[in-house]
Structures are given as C-alpha cells and as structure tokens.
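Could you join me in thinking about how sequence relates to backbone shape in a protein? We need material for that, and I hope you will provide a protein of your own picking. Once you have written the record down, we can walk along the chain together:

…
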Amino acid sequence: MPRCVIVQSDRSVLLEVDVPGFEEARDALARFAELEKSPEHVHTYRISPLSLWNAASSGLRADDVLAALAAHAKYEVPQNVRADVREQMARFGRLRLEAAPGGGFVLRGEDELLVEQVWRNIKIRPLLGPRLGAREIRIDGAQRGPVKQALLKIGWPVEDLAGYVDGDPLEVIVRESRKAGGTWGLREYQKQSADAFWAGGATRGGSGVVVLPCGAGKTMVGIAAMERVQARTLILCTNVVAARQWRDELLDKTSLTAEQVGEYTGQVKDVKPVTIATYQILTWRKKKTDPFLHFELFNRANWGLILYDEVHLLPAPVFRVTAEIQARRRLGLTATLVREDGREGDVFSLIGPKKYDVPWRVLEKQGWIATALCREVRVDLAPAERLRYASGGEREQFRIASENPAKTEVVRDLLGRHAGDRVLLIGQYLDQVESMAETFGTKAITGQTPVRERETVYGEFREGKRKLLVLSKVGNFSLDLPDANVLIQVSGTFGSRQEEAQRLGRVLRPKSDKSQASFYSLVTRATREEDFAHKRQLFLTEQGYRYEVMEAAAAGGVR
C-alpha cells in the first residue's frame, strides 16, 4: 500500500488525502497527534507533549506511536522526533496520584530524584503535604487538582489513579422510543465516546473530554455517560436556553421524570437528582470583591458525575472549583479544544485527557452533519464612513467596519436568494442587530429577551411559522434549530475562532432533504474587520471547509 505520511523534524506531520491508505493513516495519527489543518489535499498534524500525554493516558505506548509512524511514513522518521516521542510518553505515569488509607492522597514517583525535584520546586511546595518517604509525598484532599495543574506546567503530567466517589445512585435508562413517538438510537460514535470516557468503570476512566463537531449530538454522549455512571448528575451549560434543551432531551430520551430534573439558573434554583445549571449563575456575584455565592451548588448534593457542556468556554472561576472537586467523575463536551486564553493544559489536568475525537469532515461524509458551503462577501465602505473610519481608534475602526450600513442591502439580496430557506442572521452589536430586525420586519433576540419569549420564537421557527431569526451573540451556542440551513454573519467578535466554529455549527444539523447548508460572512473590505475575519476563518479552513469570496455590487447585490 502506498505511504502517505511525511514526518518532519519540527514535529509536524503531513498527510496526503487523495491516496490509498489515507483513512488508515488518519485513524492512526488521530490517536497521538493533534489535527491542525485539514484543507483539500494535505492535512497537517502536530505531535506535541500534550498530544503524546493524551495518547499515553489512553494506554498507547511509545513503541505503538513509532510503529504507526514508520508504517505510514514515506521517509524515515527524524531521529529527534523519535527521541521526543519516547521522552514525553515516558513522563506520563512516572508520577501517580493514589488514594491514601484514611483519606487524602499520596503522590508517588518512580525514582527518588524526580520526587526530590517536585519537593524542592518553590511553586509546588506550598501545595504539598509532608514527605512520607524517598518516593512519596502526602497530598491533602483539596490539593488534588492544583497539584496536577502545577505539575503539568513544569512538564510532568500526573496519572490520577485515586478513583472517585460513587455519588448517590440514580437509575438512568436510555429509551429507544421518543415521547412524541418513533424510535431512535445512539449512533456508533456516540456509544464509542461514552465507552471511552467510562472505561468500564476503571480508575483510568471517569474523567476526560469528548470532541465532536457542532450538530453531531454531544448531548447524546452526555446522556449515554449518565446511563453508564448511574448516579446523581450536575450538568453545566452556557445559558438558560441550553439548560432547557438539556432538560427536554433528558425527558424525551431517558427514563428520568420531570420530578427528577431540576434547573439552577437566575430564574429557578431547584436542586434535584439531575440538576442543570448555567455558567452565568455559578460565576455571578454582586461585585468583583465578593465571593461567588452559588459555588456551594457543587456541595449541595452527592454528585456522581459532572458534565461540562461547551467545556472550551469554561470560565476561569469554574476552573478553580473544578480543581477542588476532583473526586467527582467529570466529562467535558466540546466541538473544539481551542481556548482563546490558552488554558488547554488546565482542561487536560482538571477535566481530564481527550478521550474521543472525530474530525468534522469525517462525520460530514458519513451523513451525520450537513455539508456546508462557506462564503465571504466583501462590502465597500461609503466615502463618508471611510473618512470616519480613518480618524478612529482601533476598536472604533473595527466597530465602524462591522456596522457598515451597506451590509443591509447585501442581507436583503441574500434573503431574496434564499426566500424558501430557514435563515439565521447573527451579529455582534445590539444596535446593528436591532436595526436589521426592524428593517426585515421581525424582532431581534438578544440577551435582554425573556427566556420564555425566546423559546416561543424558536418554537415558531422549528414549526416553519418563521423563516428568519435575527440574533445577537445569544445565537452562538446551544441552539437546537435543526432546520436552519442558512446563516448570515453580519459581524463577529474580532478574531474568535471559537465563535466562527460555533456559528457554522448552527446550520450543520443534517437536513431531512440532504440539502447543503450555506454560511455567509459579511466583511467590510480593506479594514480591520477583514483582517480579523481571516483569523476567524482559519479554524474552518483548517477543518477542510473552503471559503468562496464574493463581491457586493454597488447597489447591494452579490456577485
């Protein structure tokens, strides 16, 4: 079989797509390398310490990684790469965290020198308890997470074998029939995701992250994990609408009753065997110097599982609590582990290693998410606006370009082209969003819109009574609108790759008629908005989506 992999000394790995053996090589690389780019012909992976530690945590050995590279590489694997693979994978497990008799934990090392190195580190020493021997250090129960964080930062990932509390038992059965009628079932990759997290109930399972594209059914993976754990569950998500979508799915697809599922938000504070809370309520406080009043939710019940929806958005204060509750099983769900704050290492040490990952285009080819065509529409700025732009500061320039009035006629043209489609129109700035809504005869959905009103409008859209929704940033996350097949982005958040991915995800649910989704990004030409748009698009082009560039005509049409 032809070889299609090129391993380079900078630890990048190139994978040729249109050759026999591509799929086998791709599956092998996915186990120990991070996919950075996947355009049409050559995919780029990166072998990093974190990717190798993820591989080691799943049971892969350095010999396995090197054998896979040698089997698919066109040329000899560089010696420095071979050495790094062995070095980094050997680091995982040389420090182990185990339960201590009578409570607390013991940090054990394979050799005295490594333990001495940890003991003498001035940043780590305050987190440690007394020395128990040449290769053992006592760790207080509250320091389980902080110790793992600190050791990861100095290049020594801890293998956590201390186990978990079981939590109060709760029977959760995934039903094969829906309340509204008809059958359904977990997809194979959803079962595999949950199984990889659970690991048969062993101590090496029970914590980690599952990475699946928007629209691939991450909620179903969470439900499958709940069925495996069979215990009280706390679910954390992005907003109230997402919380209610979780509740609806749980009641529709499991044996849980309405009396067993509670909501803990700014509107309702109902703690039940399954409780769904928002990140907003957990991080709320009257002023910055006050404590977070709702963190006590983590100790209000004997939770056996905590689900972190959209874990890439986990607020920094919740990381702190997560560090303190390492005895609970934890599952993070996300479409991308990219964090704009660079805290991917904290996700690894506090939530757990990546347990399962499927590239977007793989599920697209299998028909589980819709195919999508991405287009950037470049719009000119009128002369008067351009003069105002020239005299503004950087942030003001970005806003002037984002709110370019000429975009309104471009939207009108696109709505005409998609008259029979279900369209989402999303923007960054409230004035722009509300102006667009007024122009096109509808109401804007923003953070100020009452949740009940939002749910009513979303319901009308699902039922086909509305063909257009105009949304602020509340449309970025956890919208269950499977029939939406066109998204028009009139403005975005600077260079946020997360946002670009999430917005595309709003139209990636597979369509009953197998039709293609369309994603338009309106960008003002030769401005800071165009510069940031290139950065936002990078994530999607790396996932294999092509951007077509279209021009807005002077009269507002698109060509």
